[in-house]
Amino acid sequence: MNKNKSILKHCPNFYKIKNFAFEDGDYISLKLVSIYEDFIFSIDSNDINEVKRVESLDSILSKYIDDYNFRKEIRDGLLKVKVKRGTNIVDAIINSIISLFDKYEDGYTRNIYFARWV
Known about the structure:
Largest sheet: none
Distance between the termini: 63 Å
């Protein structure tokens, strides 16, 4: 099977992410989609860890499209990312996105309040 087709089997949201129309001037989102495409097609589809990262990134970017608050959180977080010299920039950004998602999910689930009527 073609390598790209085997990778796209792990990315059910690829076309949703690729074809989403972002606002004019939203360069961060456009760059994220570009990094997403470059990353998923550059991995070794036989490496289980890389496939898991691709699946995770696919679901995270799908949430990025669907949830405005999460989109804002990712944008703010990516502006604070620092990459050490000599490291792979794409890997550092992917790891940062996954880390920001984990922090968002932890904070989002903790801030659920139950209203108590008196």
